[in-house]
Amino acid sequence: MKEILLKTENLSKSFSNGGAMQHVLKNIDLQLFRGDFTVIMGASGAGKSTLLYALSGMDTPTLGTITFGEKVISDLSPDGLAVFRREHCGFVFQQIYLIDSMSIMDNVLAAGLLVNRNKKALVEQARAYHNTSPVITAALGRLLTGGVMMGAMMKGEKDLLTIKVEGDGPMGGMTVTADSKGNVKGYAFHPEIMLPPNEKGKLDVGGALGIGVLTVIKDMGMKEPYVGQTILVTGEIAEDLTYYFATSEQTPSSVALGVLMNRENTVRQAGGFILQMMPGVSEEVVSGLEKRLSEIVSVTALLDEGRTPEEILKYVLGDLDLEILDRMPVRFFCNCCKERIEKALVSVGRQELQQMIDEGKTIEVNCHFCGRHYPVTVEELKGLLLQAR
Ligand SMILES: [Zn+2]
């Protein structure tokens, strides 16, 4: 029997409309089960949004109860609801709500930083971060490799690329951020996960990620960032990025990524390539390349043979004339700093900050990307409170 995750009993929501009561939700009994994907449909004005607001703890019902797991969330205080939303809900709004003063990456990070306010969790996270399991090292290594190449494909000096993959598998997901100059950083949500090999005897990256979505955010200094989203095809990353290029950017591409591990769980080789067709390329070239690509066993094997990037390109492109236009060193680089952490704290709002101040203790915020700790004293928190809205 399936586990009930979210349940409503007699849920009602009414608004007073110039003295007359308007009943938007009336006596709704609903059960949602763990692992289900549920769609709510209805005519405009039927109360879909009101129902979702109530279920997600963004609004409180007039009557009735909402239970999440064992917890009756309809009884929670506004603060309790905030914690519930932060820990259990993900939101995709029709309108993108981002904090203007923060970069896209900081927007993505803000909520995650707060969930890990607990110091024990912080230390544990840092320990785990520096000791990812083999399957997570492979997963993160592939996404970092893809990310640093896609970052380098951006034109602007200050352009920033964020790739986020999220799935229902045990890893939860990963976030990678790259600039156009070869700097990249990233982290996995659950870096300690171990899985048995897949049926091919390989590290089961797809199994660790599960069913989910890939989101690419390009912050190119425009008012709105570019956001492209596709489903995960295999969760093995390279196929997912290939699919993303085809559907979201309408650019037929071939993405190959490989991470090769030593026995003691250290990285021996990591690399990859992205091939894209220029407009107007002849059928002959396309079919030749497709044939060539289908013959390549894996990029990991090419790396293991000790081939340089130039040699791999020559191998993949065969007798097509290869001309190297540029070379760029790449590195894992985290640009976190105290100021950035403070900005994220300011953005959480007065109520949360006041709560931290009331606890009377120095809090510690850590950077997901590099594990660095940032202590913030009560005095500093008071200063941040003045800047918060
Ligand atoms: Zn950092």
Account of the protein in words:
The protein is built from 13 helices and 14 strands. Residues 113-128 have low confidence and may be disordered. A hairpin with a 6-residue loop joins strand 8 and strand 9 (226-231). Helix 11 crosses helix 13 and helix 12 runs antiparallel to helix 13. The chain has three domains: 4-88, P-loop containing nucleotide triphosphate hydrolases (Rossmann fold); 118-330, Hsp33 domain (3-Layer(bab) Sandwich); 338-387, Alpha-Beta Complex (CBS domain Like). The strands form four sheets. The protein has a six-stranded mixed β-sheet, with helices on one face. The protein is an alpha+beta fold and 389 residues long. The site of zinc ion has 6 residues, from loops.
Which tags fit this structure?
34% helix; alpha+beta; 6-stranded mixed sheet; CBS domain Like; Rossmann fold; binds zinc ion; 13 helices; 4-stranded antiparallel sheet; 389 residues; Hsp33 domain; 14 strands; 3 domains
